[in-house]
Amino acid sequence: MLFKEKLYTLYNGDSINATRFRFLLLAFDVLTISYFVISSTLPLTAWLLYVDILIGAFMLIDFMARLWIATDRLQFVFSFGTLMDVIVIVTLIVPLIAQNFAFLRVVRTMRLLRSYHVLKDLRRQSHFFKQHEEVIQSVVNLFVFIFIITALVYVLQVNTNPDIRTYIDALYFTITTLTTTGFGDITLHGNTGHLLSIIIMVVGVGLFLRLVQTIFRPAKVRYTCNTCGLNRHDPDAVHCKHCGEILKIETSGA
Questions:
Q1: Which among 111, 106, 133 is positioned nearest to 122, based on CA atoms?
Q2: In whole angstroms, how large is the CA radius of gyration of the chain?
Q3: Are residues 29 and 114 both part of a single domain?
């Protein structure tokens, strides 16, 4: 049980070693996601299968460790993040069986910056992250959203649509649709493709524009005014814009 306690501390503790361990897991997520995107454009070879299985085995060990130390295992098993990890692991360890759904492993992007402990570590270790947290999370959310939509386009069209041969083709269609450019050189086929196009245009465009707006709008800091409750202010604000109350926003003095 001593090993279990040490493992729990690594995943949830506040020590330097625990922080470093979680940053290593975050780096692993970034590297594997980059590999997934690049490998999707390459022909399937034996060494790619070996790399997939190796990554899948590492993720399975990580999954079993988190399951072992979970305080509520039932809740952990049926959580959305856990189900996404299971999909990724299956598509990696049994790629010949799940080959048609292999790019669903890009859902691993959902884990980026989703851990409360990783967010806490970043706030404590990086002044830049603490100052620009909302923008950084919006950028991550934007990339996650684009990758998930692109993965759906790729999986549902790659074997039936001659215009969608690689992940890049699916990404190109997704970006032109979300930005409302609509060149029209790539279209989705069949009832499934048409329904997916409608979903991207109706729901996706609104979310895409909202995320982009969040990234490029003027920077604000979170501080709740005691009088009116306004919780977003300019970094150098002295008075609340709504009620004129004097604010005491912490600054670095720059």
A1: 133
A2: 22
A3: yes
- Structure tokens given for 21: 């361990």
Distances (CA, A) of 145 to 83, 116, 204: 18, 20, 9
Q: What is the pLDDT of residues 223-249, one digit of tens each?
A: 888 888 888 777 778 888 888 888 887
What is the extent of the structural domain holding 117? 1-123
Q: Is 28 helix (H, G, I), strand (E, B) or coil?
A: helix
Q: pTM for the full model? A: 0.64
Burial code (b: 16+ CB inside 10 Å, e: under 16) for 161-187 equals beebeebebbbbbbeebbeeeeeeebe
Integer Cα distance of 160 and 201 in angstroms: 21
Listed in sequence order, the residues at least 6 apart from 76 whose beta carbon sits closer than 8 Å to its beta carbon are 66, 67, 70, 82
Task: Let me know whether 149 and 94 are in one domain.
Answer: no
219 Rama class: left (phi>0) / alpha (psi -120 to 50) / beta: beta
Per the structure block, which two tokens stand in for 14? 């506040």
d(CA 66, CA 45): 32
